[in-house]
Structure formats: C-alpha cells, structure tokens
Amino acid sequence: MSIPSLYHQIQASLSDLLLQSPERRASCFVVGFSGGVDSTVLLHALLADKPTLPVHAVYINHGLSVNADKWQNHCHEVCRSLDIPFTAIPVSIDNSPRTSLEAQARELRYQKLIEYCHHHQGILLLGQHQDDQLETFLLQAKRGAGPKGLAGMPALTWREDILICRPLLSVSRQDIESEAHYQRLKWIEDESNQDNQFDRNFLRNSIIPALTARWPVLAKTVSRSARLCAQQQALLEEAVDEKLAGMVDEGALDIVGLQSFSHAWQQQIVRRWLESAGLALPSYKQTEQLLALTEARDDAQPILLLQGWQVRRAQGRFWLARVLSSPPREVIQVKALERCDFDWSATPPFQLNQDARVQANMPSVRCRENINGVSKPLKAWMKQWGIPAWQRSHLPVVFIDGKPVAIVRPRDVIYFTDAPAGFQVIIEK
Fold it and tell me: What is the full DSSP assignment across 213-245?
C-alpha cells in the first residue's frame, strides 16, 4: 500500500464516519497525539489534504516514564513543523498497589481530551487500529464480556456530547508502520509497551504473534466479529429502551413493571437503566444483587452500593442516590448569587437572587404551597410529594426573614406563599 492510498483510505474513512453524524457542530479536529507511530500517521494523513476543519494536537503527559518530557518535546516539534496548535496536558497517576495503571491512565487520557474538545468545540480523533481492536476483543473475552464488551471500540461514538472518531480501525499495525517508514516519519517508542505485566502488552508481545502466525488474517476477522457484536448490541438496546421507556419516572425504575419480564430481560433492563444514568455497566454479580432487592420489603429500605452510588428500594421503585455527607445542623448564610454546592445536598448546585439562609435536616416548620392551599408541616409536604425518606434531610430549605420561602428538590424548586415577590432559586443545568 502506498502512502497516498493509505492517506486516502484514512481520509475517506473519516469522511464516511462524519457523514453518519450530520448533527455535529464543531470548530476543529482534535488529534490525541502521543507521538507513537499510529497517531503520527493519523496526524499526517489528516493534513495531507486540506482538512475541512483546523487541526489541533493534544499530548497527555502521564509522567510514568523518565522519557515523558522528551516525548512531549518531540510532539511539540512535530506540530511546530506542521504549523498546527499543540497542547500538552499533565495528569497525575495514583501508583498505589490496588489501582490499575492501565485503566487509570486510559480514563485520565479520555477525560482530559474530552475537556479540551468541550473547550474548543472539537471532534476527537484517535489512532486506534485493527490490531488494537483484536487486543480489546481478547481482553473482553478474558473478562467474560457479552456482546457489548466484545463489540470492542466503535469507529464512531459520542462521549459526554463529544464526537469520537477512530478512522484507523480498519488498518493493520503492519500497514501503518510500513507507510510510516516509507514516508520517513519520525515517532517515539514507549518502552513500557514491552512490559508484559500489563495485560494488553502480554497479549501484544506474547500471545497475538503466535495466533497471527497460524491465522494471518485474525485481526481482520475478529474486527468483523466485533462489528457483528456491535450490531446485535444496538438491536438489543433498541428493544430494551422500548421496554424501559414506560418504567422510569423521575429517574426511578418501577419494580412491578420490571418483574413482568423474564429474568434475562430484567438483567438487560437494569443494566440499561444504570447505563442511562451515567454509571459503568455492573458485573454479573452486581446485577444479580440488584435484582435480589426486588424481593425485599419497601419498609426494609435495602441498599446496594454501586460505584459511589446507592441503589435503594422505596415506593415500589428502584432509586439511584449519591452517597452524601451528613447534612449540617447549623444554619448556612448565603449571599445573593453565591454558588451553593453542598456535599450533603441531594440537589444540583444552585444560586439565590437575594441574601437568605439555608437549612437542611427537614426543619420543623409549617408551609403553604399556594395562596388557596392548606398549611402543613414540611415533613407532610415531603411525604405528599413522594420524596424518598432518605433524601428528605438532604434537601436545602431556604428562609428569608425567618420564614420558609422555598425548598430545592433534585429536579425543581417549590416556592411557598411567604416567598417575596421576585425571589428566585436558579438551579444549574
């Protein structure tokens, strides 16, 4: 394969991917540029023909190698020679024994690249290729993954409202390296890639060479299997979303509706419910623990801890609740337009448009929700509104001149009749 044909293949792949997402609004392409051969070829291919958007390159400096700063300088020089913006972003890795360096470095890299794309309205381009897909497939199979995991890396996906494209997924590592040599490109070699204590390196260095020696087109055929798994997963998610649509109210999952399906469908429904709330997919064991709560009594208030969240059962529904600090007993004085972001609050951050004070722990006061309504204790109002018992003490109640004027709920604000004209609570979206 010649350089022009490889570059054309990459450019055509990117164009095809972007056509699949016509709703994109972007100001630039952002290349995750490590300085390795894959991202180097991707960057040069993108610039070989006049790109439709300006190109930025971003290097994430994990600081794990003594050569990290040297590699950063190399990337800077490459971008200077290409006359494109270059940004290096340092990250700090927790090197404690109980953490996975691979997983942590990968997640931090994505996090910083996504943040950069948000700031610059960018489309993120990554250099993962066909052999990376084979490694991902084998790692997921080793972990016992289902179709979603075996689908591997998508060529096109969204993450936190940022479009991510992988235009090299159909290109082999051998072709990438051959073309880089042909073009006389310069790239770096990360010495940690030879460390077989990392699962991906073990596969790459010790297992995959033996597999591909016997089956030379393995990476290509596994990529096809990954695409088929992705198609099956997409169809499954469509079916699950249809079932889930009528079972969720204010983020809570109806248990009676859930139990109307077979156990296999229940597994898929609760996993999709958690995923739609932004949580990582639970393990099989965690899924079964959650489903076991369907048999618990509501008044038992069972709790399952999951990724820093609590799954609770109440009012015939499953609820997701963040693990919060204990609410304070003291009164909090708040200035107008001061950002209220309390670690004990079950609400998003908010502001008040005038000075007030805030109390938690469901103060013992009587309130009237509207002019013609009745006056009730706040505790009775919360019960009438269907606020779960564990959440009530974590809702901020706003007072002005000693009178309750509003309560901030997770999704809205209730104003009481004592609220002064023009008073407003502004919840961050």
Answer: HHSTTHHHHHHHHHHHHHHHHHHHHHHHHHHHH
The residue type found at 198 is F
Tokens of 312: 């609770």
User: What DSSP designation does 282 have?
Assistant: P
CATH topology classification for 3-229: Rossmann fold (3.40.50)
Question: What CATH class does 246-322 carry?
Answer: mainly alpha
- Integer Cα distance of 321 and 258 in angstroms: 19
d(CA 400, CA 358): 9
The pLDDT value recorded for residue 1 is 47
Q: 181: exposed, middle or buried (C-beta count within 10 Å: 0-12, 13-18, 19+)? A: exposed
The pLDDT of residue 3: 45
The residues that bridge with 23 in the sheet, in sequence order, are: none
- Whole-angstrom Cα distance, residue 314 to residue 316? 5
Report the SS3 class of residue 149: helix
Annotated domain spans of the chain: 3-229, 246-322, 332-427
383 alpha carbon, distance to own chain's centre: 34
Angle (CA) 302 304 309, round 5°? 125
The DSSP string of 326-356 is PPPSS-EEE-TT--B--TT-SS--EEESS-E
* CA dist., res. 29 & res. 82, Å (int): 15
First to last CA, the chain: 50
Place of tokens 């809570």: 252
Per-residue pLDDT at 406: 96
**Which of helix, strand or coil describes residue 90?**
strand
Residues of the chain with pLDDT under 70: 1-4, 22-24, 95-99, 298, 371
Judged by DSSP in three states, 122 sits in strand
How far is the C-alpha of 348 from the C-alpha of 263, rounded, in Å? 35
The phi, psi pair for 420, rounded to 5°, reads: -70, 155
What pLDDT, on the 0 to 100 scale, is given for residue 50?
85
Distance, in Å, from the CA atom of 208 to the CA atom of 205, rounded to the nearest integer, reads 7
Q: Which residues touch 192 (CB under 8 Å, ≥6 apart)?
A: 64, 65, 198, 201
Q: What's the one-letter identity of residue 163?
A: L
